[in-house]
Amino acid sequence: MYYMTAKTYLEVFKLLHTVKQGETLYQISQDYRTPLSVIISANPTINPNIIYPGQTIVIPGFPQPETIPYQIEVSVNNRTLRLLKDGVVQKQYPIAVGSILHGTPVGNFIIINKAPNPGGPFGTMWMSLSKEHYGIHGTNDPSSIGKAVSRGCIRMYNKDVEELASIVPIGTSVIIHP
């Protein structure tokens, strides 16, 4: 049986976030649902009032994506979500994406939490992305799959999002491209 030392735990469960243009430390804390005070404590050498693009910030409590064999790749234009394991496609799912007015964000994110049965239009499963207000979720309108109709989230058939959520752990990398 393998036991993690405290040092190993701290090395594995600290995500490194690279600051993007226009981001603030407050917004980063909101995106990761991590209190600002916790992020400041994990980064004692940074000035919380002055961060810059390219700067690396430790987000405690999340595994480094490199330690997870799974990756999710979303093609907004093709309206597909692919599950990869060790770089090999395991499965491809049809999805719905954001409408013209509410586009799906493009970039690199991680799954930060999962919520079964969130209710309403979110179907039977919600997986939050590390961008506030966005996630991968089921739907109460299966006819929307394959269309650009959401408010920016990635919609899946309920059975598909349940399957995906049962496979991927918190911290899984999600790459969204056009």
From TrEMBL:
Pathway(s) the chain acts in: Cell wall biogenesis; peptidoglycan biosynthesis
Top-level taxon of the source organism: Bacteria
Keywords associated with the record: Cell shape, Cell wall biogenesis/degradation, Glycosyltransferase, Hydrolase, Peptidoglycan synthesis, Transferase
CDD domains to which the protein is assigned, alphabetical: LysM, YkuD_like
Keyword Glycosyltransferase: yes
Stretches assigned to the LysM domain: 15-59
GO cellular component terms listed in the entry, alphabetical order: extracellular region
Record-annotated active site: 137 (proton donor/acceptor), 153 (nucleophile)
SUPFAM superfamilies linked: L,D-transpeptidase catalytic domain-like (SSF141523), LysM domain (SSF54106)
An annotated Gene Ontology molecular function: glycosyltransferase activity
A GO biological-process term: cell wall organization
TM spans (from-to): none
Segments forming domain L,D-TPase catalytic: 70-177
SMART domains: LysM
Family matches, as Gene3D superfamilies: L,D-transpeptidase catalytic domain-like, LysM domain
Database matches in InterPro entries: LD-transpeptidase (IPR050979), LD_TPept_cat_dom (IPR005490), LysM (IPR018392), LysM_dom_sf (IPR036779), Transpep_catalytic_dom (IPR038063)
Sequence similarity: Belongs to the YkuD family.
Name of the protein this chain belongs to: LysM domain-containing protein
